[in-house]
Amino acid sequence: MNFEQRFTQQQKQVQKLAMTQQLQQSIQMLQFNVEELTSFLEQRALENPLIEVSVDRDDTADLDLYRSKPSSISRDDDQENNYMNQVPDNKISLFEYLLEQVHMMRETYLRELMLFLLEYIDKNGYLNITLEEAGAITNATEIQLLDALTLLQQLDPAGVGARDLRECLMLQVERDDLAPNMAYLILEERFEEFAEKKWKKIAKDFDITLSEIQEVWDFVQTLTPAPGAIYEGMPEQYIKPDIVVRVEENKLKVLSAKTGLPVLHFQNDYYQEMQQFKEKDVQKFMKEKFSEYEWLKRSVAQRGETIVKVGTAIVSAQKDFFLKPNHPIKPLTLKEIAEELLIHESTVSRSVNGKYLETSFGIFELKTFFTSALVSSNNESGEDASGADVKRKLTDFVKNEDKAKPLSDQKIVEMLAEEGIEVSRRTIAKYRDALNIPSSTKRKRF
């Protein structure tokens, strides 16, 4: 058997994208939110003497910074049980706050035990050591430790030093003059039944009405399960939108947000001074740093243009959300925006993740405008229903339901079907959990 080996020459043209370090960093910059971008540029400025980074905070009339969380597509304006509205305006920790109170007491052995127990108070205000364990460490008797714990539980905030949720709520009820008469007793003796809304037996045993138990339930909802959390000195968080949407004469206008965005400045005086040096190493260094400045400037500008371009396409696709009072949101995918702009889906994904859009009625993350269609509806428009539409309808149904006979998940499925929207009971349960809406049995009121 003969083997013959031949060598030939061929020309082959191949298109190949080389992922240089700068290209990788440009892609990474697109994915950065405002805070991450600022931090990245400031780090570069430390390594490059030609770069200075500033943050534009002058144009406050054009853009308001919203604290805490962004607005949600399905908003809940009920603030009655928003405990975080009571956050004290200070940076003191719970431990420091309790320590100050204990130090105001006269020095006794119980005070020493209180200081010991303070070391075992967690960030939510709960005691995470048993009295038996504390006794083994301190050699104190159980009665002494119980007396020290009782004194500790009388400190502010109410509920601190509790060993479980039941005791935490009881401590708060005990110190509240507005608490219903039966609240403490029900929590003490029938906590599990009360929490599971097995109220008929409680009403019979205590010879009270279901309405009285409902009153206790409503009061307990105003208490906090984590009394120490508000003293944890949470850092202030600000959302810095990347784009702003304005409505002018029923037309939408998309602008790039300037306030809060990092701005690159070229240190021209230093550059001109260093140009006087003719050493090759100095000239090479300055050339490299100047090139880096030019690249960063282009990359930041390109990032901003891409986000505005993607944001404009999203606003155009969801124009009813910005123009109509009920803010409906239509099904929209990354692929649709990518095809419209002739860019890759991954570019759209990087452009929307962690990026925010400001309107006159709130701030929204760009990715929240993407939602897939659930089913084809039978309405006249023939448009698909989105998950946001179903969530909004679900919220409206629950808001307007008869609280004595709340709607079950299956009943909500049937009501949606009457409107031409077919979803499963499991989907409704999932959306209900996402909206923090309790089940029908827990929503029932007497």
Structure commentary:
- Helix 1 runs parallel beside helix 13 (280-317).
- The longest helix has 38 residues, at 280-317.
- The protein has 3 domains: 21-66 and 239-368, no CATH class; 94-231, no CATH class; 376-443, Homeodomain-like (Arc Repressor Mutant, subunit A, Orthogonal Bundle), CATH 1.10.10.
- It has 446 residues and is of the alpha+beta class.
- The chain has helices at 21-31, 34-47, 94-103, 109-118, 131-138, 142-152, 165-174, 183-189, 191-195, 199-206, 210-220, 268-274, 280-317, 319-323, 334-341, 345-352, 387-399, 409-418, 425-434, 440-443, and strands at 51-55, 66-67, 238-239, 243-248, 251-256, 262-266, 356-359, 362-365, 373-376, 384-386.
- Helices cover 47% and strands 9% of the residues.
- Pfam families: Sigma54_AID, Sigma54_CBD, Sigma54_DBD.
- Keywords: DNA-binding, DNA-directed RNA polymerase, Nucleotidyltransferase, Sigma factor, Transcription, Transcription regulation, Transferase.
- This is RNA polymerase, sigma 54 subunit, RpoN/SigL.
List keywords for this structure.
3 domains; alpha+beta; 20 helices; four-stranded mixed sheet; two-stranded antiparallel sheet; Arc Repressor Mutant, subunit A
Q: Can you give the helix content as a percent range? A: 40-55%
Q: Summarize the helix and strand pattern as letters.
A: HHEEHHHHHHHHHEEEEHHHHHEEEEHHHH
Report the count of strand segments. 10
Enumerate the strands of the largest sheet in spatial order, edge to edge or round the barrel: 5-4-7-8
Structural class: alpha+beta
Principal-axes geometry comes out as flat
Strand content: 5-15%
Largest sheet: 4 strands, mixed
Number of domains: 3
Number of helices: 20
Radius of gyration: 31 Å
How many angstroms separate the termini? 96 Å
On the 0-100 scale, what is the average pLDDT?
Answer: 80
Note poorly predicted spans: 58-69, 74-90, 376-382
